[in-house]
Amino acid sequence: MGVRLPVRRAAFTLIELLVVLAIIAILIGLLVPAVQKVREAASRIQCANNLKQLGLALHHCNDQQGRLPPQAGTFAGAYYAPLFFHLLPYVEQGDVWKMAAWMDYNGHVGGPPPSAASTIHLGVIWPTWASVNVSSNTWLRQTRVKVYQCPSDPSLGHGLDWEPGDASYAGNFQVFGGRANTNSASDWDGAARIPGTFKDGTSNTICFAEKYARCDGTGEPGGTWWMRGVYHGARFNAPGCTDDSYPGDRLSAVFAGGRGIDGTAWLTGTASRFLVQPHPFLGKPGPCDRRVASSGHSGGMSAGLGDGSVRFLSASISGATWWAACTPAGGETLGADW
Asked: Which secondary-structure segment (H or E) carries 119?
């Protein structure tokens, strides 16, 4: 019987190995952009759905209250609150709305978590800096409302002391604050109604637009926070005390007009046209301008219209067409780029 010789197995040469690695690298390079496109498409759909829910909420509110909420003000049983607080009951967040009746009278901006020992029930709905979400014993201002957050917003989670209560959408001041109040630092109630104040048509008027949760390009920290625009609320403090933001300031969910208590003036006219992916959003100075709407999507921005529909606006839209769509009763003609 002959001796069996060991079988010599073929192995990859260095060149073959490098070729395989190169092929894998090429495949990954082709796959990653495709995956990113799929993720962005899903995020864009979710963002549009959020805006759709906000549009439906507006109509529900209008049917129940006979008018729309103010950009900031007293409305429907709630005192001195911003637009997105007033919308809570109409986006299935009525329990969060009710939490504004609870306040920690020792609470202050950037302070420790609320204490059960110093939390009291006010007997009225009045959101303040010191309002407590008693369901989780956290500050109300830090309550996440998913419908207010766009998954394509890269600035989410970069807030100051409001996370995860940051937001990715803002209200059109021309609609909710009113053109007559554009330069006001006190009156932010435009007494809007559907269809009464939409002389140009609800389908031709923007009510909501995307806006980065954090945007520091013009200097001080700026951005979007659904509960920004409230009084301090500490014990014995009266309106006008330190840290009041009512009716709004540089962190308020607003675009296309309005003047904040801190002097912030949101841009109007053609200069107010939205920004697309203004990075770095934390740069000071930088391309991100808190005075205008801003989108994390490539190629444009989603906007919610007065008829409840959602439209994707191209990044190439003209400033004139944009502003014509912002004014509910300006009498302008929308351009072909609408």
From this structure: strand 119-121
